[in-house]
Task: inverse folding
């Protein structure tokens, strides 16, 4: 089962991931919300739309903007709506 881990904690785990551009997008309900903190960061992808970010907080350590998601993706990326992906040292496997 695909699992996202960082700093010794399981961030997300699900058999229902969607892979886009090599990144696994986990359903929102598979991500531990207690480990997420809101971020003001946004980026724009020409075909997916505007991404929003969250900061991971695990065992007192912060990993700024290590989680991204598309709250309102363009139609070409509709399959990732309500899903989260990870980077910045988060291992997914």
Result:
């Amino acid at each position: 089962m695909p699992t996202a881990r960082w700093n010794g904690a399981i961030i997300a785990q699900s058999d229902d991931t969607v892979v886009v551009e090599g990144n696994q997008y986990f359903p929102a309900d598979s991500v531990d919300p207690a480990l997420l903190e809101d971020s003001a960061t946004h980026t724009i992808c020409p075909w997916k739309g505007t991404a929003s970010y969250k900061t991971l907080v695990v065992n007192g350590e912060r990993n700024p903007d290590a989680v991204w998601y598309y709250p309102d993706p363009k139609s070409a990326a509709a399959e990732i709506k309500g899903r989260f992906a990870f980077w910045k040292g988060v291992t997914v496997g």
